[in-house]
């Protein structure tokens, strides 16, 4: 098996297992209110972490590059109540522009 | 399901474009068939991008570990949606596979409850967009060029930011977001990719503080 297929097979099977574990092990049982209160905050916790790692994450270092300028544009677009696609496009356009001008890598 | 599909339409455009970017990057690193199978089975953008970028520099083991660590967030995510998923078991398993960051976020009705119809409807639309995007990127990679030149890497955090804005309704939600972001940032210099994200899930323990849910 080639290296590419090894990665695809293991990561694919592993991801399906990770997604299935909770629903299979828990069944359809309702969780206690305190657990629900905690799980309700999982979305903001993980989304914030995804934003940080996708914006400033490098290879074990914090990197300030064009992605940060793009995110700043997204924040501005959100504050102006722009629709989702405009928010995403603003980030891409600003990051691409900053990069093309050579201001940030 | 129709509600979820409609709500996911703008997300699907963004996810489809990420799929194109993935297809472009994966064409050389994986080859077309493996790249399509990867998108069809893993269906998780950040993990797939990480695996492809590490396959070149970090070797096979590094690519596998990083991708699985990134996707380890689906363990707590799966626990969070479990009580809301349909019966019987095979339907639960199918619905669970359609749970990705974006479909999970828009299916959240607040208070830890999820609308399974929105999750499945949005998940199907996003799945098709992701596969179609991957195929387009593989086919037309030379025409598109380097996805970074188009700012695609900045579009990812912007998408998550827009989803986050829809999730924070009160002070506890805001506190969890700030804490989760801080934990992730603090760990980025020390931990392999994926670990900062899964570690940030401890921020949801803010929910143990007494107060209005």
Strand % of chain A is under 5%
User: Biggest interface, and residues per chain?
Assistant: A-B, 81 and 105 residues
Portion of residues in beta strands of chain B equals: under 5%
How confident is the prediction overall: mean pLDDT of chain B?
88
- For the largest beta sheet of chain B, what order do the strands appear in spatially? 1-2
Number of strands of chain B: 2
**Total of domains of chain B:** 2
Helices and strands of chain B: which structural class? Answer: mainly alpha
> How many strands, which pairing sense, and closed or not: the largest β-sheet of chain A?
none
Q: What is the overall number of helices of chain B?
A: 11
Q: How would a textbook summarize the main sheet of chain B? A: 2 strands, antiparallel
Q: Care to describe what's here?
A:
- The complex is a heterodimer of chains A (105) and B (213).
- Chain A has 105 residues and is mostly helical.
- Chain A has a domain of 30 residues.
- Helices cover 75% and strands 0% of the residues of chain A.
- Chain A contains 5 helices and no strands.
- The longest helix of chain A is centred in the N-terminal third of the chain and has 24 residues.
- Chain A is extended.
- Chain B is mostly helical.
- Chain B is 72% helix and 2% strand.
- The longest helix of chain B is centred in the middle third of the chain and has 29 residues.
- A two-stranded antiparallel ribbon of chain B has the order 1-2.
- The radius of gyration of chain B is 17 Å and the shape is globular.
- In chain B, α1 runs antiparallel to α7 and α1 runs parallel beside α8.
- Chain B has 2 domains: 150 residues, no CATH class; 46 residues.
- Chain B is built from 11 helices and 2 strands.
- The model of chain B has no long low-confidence stretch (mean pLDDT 88).
- Chains A and B meet through α1, α2, α3, α4 and α5 of A and α1, α2, α3, α4 and α5 of B.
């Amino acid at each position: 098996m080639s290296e590419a297929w090894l990665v695809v097979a293991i990561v694919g099977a592993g991801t399906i297992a990770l997604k299935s574990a909770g629903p299979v092990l828990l069944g359809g049982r309702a969780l206690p209110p305190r657990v629900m209160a905690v799980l309700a905050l999982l979305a903001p916790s993980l989304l914030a972490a995804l934003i940080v790692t996708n914006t400033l994450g490098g290879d074990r270092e914090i990197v300030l590059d064009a992605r940060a300028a793009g995110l700043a544009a997204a924040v501005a677009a959100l504050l102006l109540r722009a629709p989702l696609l405009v928010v995403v496009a603003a980030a891409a356009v600003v990051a691409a522009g900053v990069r093309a001008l050579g201001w940030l890598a | 399901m129709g509600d979820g599909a409609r709500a996911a339409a703008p997300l699907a455009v963004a996810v489809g474009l990420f799929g194109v970017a993935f297809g472009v990057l994966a064409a050389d690193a994986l080859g077309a068939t493996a790249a399509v199978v990867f998108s069809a089975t893993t269906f998780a953008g950040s993990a797939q991008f990480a695996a492809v970028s590490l396959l070149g520099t970090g070797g096979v083991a590094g690519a596998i570990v990083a991708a699985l660590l990134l996707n380890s967030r689906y363990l707590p995510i799966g626990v969070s949606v479990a009580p809301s998923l349909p019966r019987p078991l095979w339907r639960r398993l199918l619905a669970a596979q359609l749970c990705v960051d974006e479909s999970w976020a828009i299916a959240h009705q607040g208070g830890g409850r999820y609308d399974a119809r929105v999750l499945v409807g949005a998940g199907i639309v996003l799945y098709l967009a992701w596969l179609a995007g991957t195929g387009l990127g593989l086919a037309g990679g030379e025409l598109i060029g380097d996805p970074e030149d188009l700012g695609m890497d900045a579009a990812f955090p912007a998408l998550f930011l827009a989803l986050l804005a829809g999730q924070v309704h009160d002070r506890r939600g805001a506190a969890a977001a700030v804490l989760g972001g801080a934990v992730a940032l603090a760990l980025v210099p020390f931990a392999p990719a994926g670990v900062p994200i899964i570690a940030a899930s401890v921020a949801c323990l803010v929910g143990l503080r007494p107060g209005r849910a």
